[in-house]
Amino acid sequence: MKRVYWRPRTVSQAVVALVAILAIVGMGAVEFFRTPTKQPHYEQKIRAVERAIESAKIIKETRISYGLSIDSEVDLSESGLIGAQMTPITTVPGHLPAKQLSTNPNFAAVLYDMLLECGVEEGDLVAVGCSGSFPALNLAAYAAMEELKVNPVIISSAGASQFGANFPELLWIDMESKLYDAGLIHFRSVACSVGGREDAGLNLPPEGQTIVDTAIKRNNLKPIDTDDFLESIDTRMKIYDQHSRGNDYKCYINVGGGTVSVGRSVGKKLYHPGLNTNPSSRALAVDSVMSRFARRGTPIIHLVQIEQLAQEYGLETPQGPEPAIGQGIVFLQDERNRWLALGVLIVLLISLRALVLTDLGFRLFKGRPGKKTTGEPEPMV
């Protein structure tokens, strides 16, 4: 038995408009009803943050045991990682809101994400330049590297800007030793400079110089003892090359604004906060440890301008002693619902078939034909 189908001779503008409206509503629904989706390596990032929190607890306990009080009006999360406004080893002015923001432990996940973007894998070599100005970011970088099981070669500077690790009893290199002794990290700095002007502490009082020299000795670190800017860069690069044993570094991490590491204030501003894989020729022209690695093609992770970095990654200043683990876009991002998108596509295809390939559209809009609608539907056998 043969069946008869009816096909409209043309498609009315009303049908076209209806399908277009359905498509717009469907697209709007897909865009509006986005769902939070876990990002790759979610569990590893959580573990890196937990390690950073545990490291901060060790430093806080040590600080309290030394009788160094914590001012909750300055250190909003009572992390123990915000130093004093001024001490004999304070090198330059510091921006308190940036220091407070840096205590967000979720920066460890951001660092983990950046290392992955650099292509760093387990066992790879990573060069690191730390200053005492941002001890919380140092902890974040260390936690990320521990979680990724890389082999870092670290050179620190002992001085610190305002509100950094500037207590004479507890410099950054002392904190690092505490974490190593507690078993939270398996690596330490291989050398240390004074920091400050020209990386030689030229702006520190004699008392500050003595405090730093004593701290370098009690932590058994190799001192970088030079007051010449270029010589200090050469010395650091020689140390990095000696410890690489001919292997390539997969990235260089700079924490803070160490003069030799970033190339004074000019070089510091010519690199973007965060990941730099293709620095400008102007940035490369400024001599620094960062530029020398960049000229070799090594990706640079530049941890400065913390407020800009935090905004980019969705991090906020911690307001209490209980940090919000899993904060920021490296953990969750609102993405389009694939099943909803598929449902919208199916509805559109069914609508097109029903309204265009059958006489349904003609019947629905009979009496309201468009300009192109002429005649009754034609039979198909």
Describe what this molecule looks like in 3D.
With 381 residues, the chain is an alpha/beta fold. 45% of the residues lie in helices and 14% in strands. It has helices at residues 13-32, 42-65, 96-102, 107-117, 135-148, 172-181, 206-218, 229-244, 259-262, 264-270, 281-285, 289-295, 306-313, 338-356, 360-364; strands at 5-7, 35-38, 125-130, 151-157, 166-167, 170-171, 189-193, 222-223, 249-255, 274-276, 300-303, 332-335, 378-380. Strands 8-7-4-3-9-11-10 form a seven-stranded mixed β-sheet, with helices on both faces. α5 links the parallel β3 and β4. α2 (42-65) crosses α4 (107-117). The mean pLDDT is 90.
Give the gist of this structure.
The chain is α/β, with parallel strands linked by helices and 381 residues long. It has helices spanning 13-32, 42-65, 96-102, 107-117, 135-148, 172-181, 206-218, 229-244, 259-262, 264-270, 281-285, 289-295, 306-313, 338-356, 360-364, and strands at 5-7, 35-38, 125-130, 151-157, 166-167, 170-171, 189-193, 222-223, 249-255, 274-276, 300-303, 332-335, 378-380.
What global shape is seen?
A: elongated
Spatial order of strands in the largest sheet: 8-7-4-3-9-11-10
Helix content class: 40-55%
Q: Between the first and last Cα atoms, what is the distance in angstroms?
A: 10 Å
Low-confidence spans: none
Strand-pairing-aware structural class: alpha/beta
